[in-house]
Amino acid sequence: MAGIMFTDGTKVLAGFNRHTGRITGIGGKIKTGETPCRAAVREAIEELFEFNFIPQELLEQVYSALEFSTIIGSKYYSLFPMSFDKLEKILNLAEHSSARYSLHSKVYDKFPLTIKDLIHDRKIHKHAELEMLMLLPCEIKISSCFKEDIVKFKSIEYIIGNVF
C-alpha cells in the first residue's frame, strides 16, 4: 500500500470512504511491478479526480513534479508527505490533461483549480472511492459529548428514516 499525505503541517487532506465508513488518507494498493512512489501518484489521481481513464502522460508529469525524499513507512505501507503547494501543482497538471484528453470526472462538473474547489465542488457519486474530501487538523481530539451526539443522531435517523 502507498499514499500521499497532503498537508501544511497543521491540516491534512482526508477523504470519507462510504464503503468502509471511514475517514482515510489518499492512497491504496500497489499494483504488480509498481514502485510505492508511482502507486502513490496513481492512487492520488484516481481518488482525487475519479477520471474515466488516466493518461500515462499525466502520471509521468505528476511523478516528475513531486519529490519523494520523505517517507513515513511501515512493513505494509509507504506514505509520502507533500505540501499543499504540490497538491495545487497536481491540480494544474491534471486540469491541462483534462482538457487535452477530454477526461471526464465522476465527481466534478467543472474541473477544480484550487484546493477549495477540490473540496467544495465535489459531487457525491455512489461509485467513487472517496465520497467527499475534507481538511482535518493534524491533531484531532473529538469531545466525548460530540461523539455521543453523533451516535444519538444515527440512532434517531435509523428510527425515523433518512433525515437528509
Key features of this structure:
alpha+beta, Nucleoside Triphosphate Pyrophosphohydrolase, three-stranded antiparallel sheet
Tell me what you see in this structure.
- This protein is of the alpha+beta class.
- The chain has a single domain, classed as Alpha-Beta Complex (Nucleoside Triphosphate Pyrophosphohydrolase).
- Helices cover 40% and strands 20% of the residues.
- It contains 5 helices and 7 strands, in the order ββββααββααβα.
- The strands form 2 sheets. It has a 4-stranded mixed beta sheet with strand order 4-1-6-5. Strands 3-2-7 form a 3-stranded antiparallel beta sheet.
- A hairpin with a 4-residue loop joins strand 5 and strand 6.
- The model has no long low-confidence stretch (mean pLDDT 92).
Q: What is the C-alpha radius of gyration, as a whole number of Å?
A: 17 Å
Number of DSSP E strands: 7
- What is the domain tally? 1
Give the strand order of the largest sheet, numbering strands 1, 2, ... along the chain. 4-1-6-5
Distance between the termini: 35 Å
Structural class: alpha+beta
> Fraction of residues in helices?
25-40%
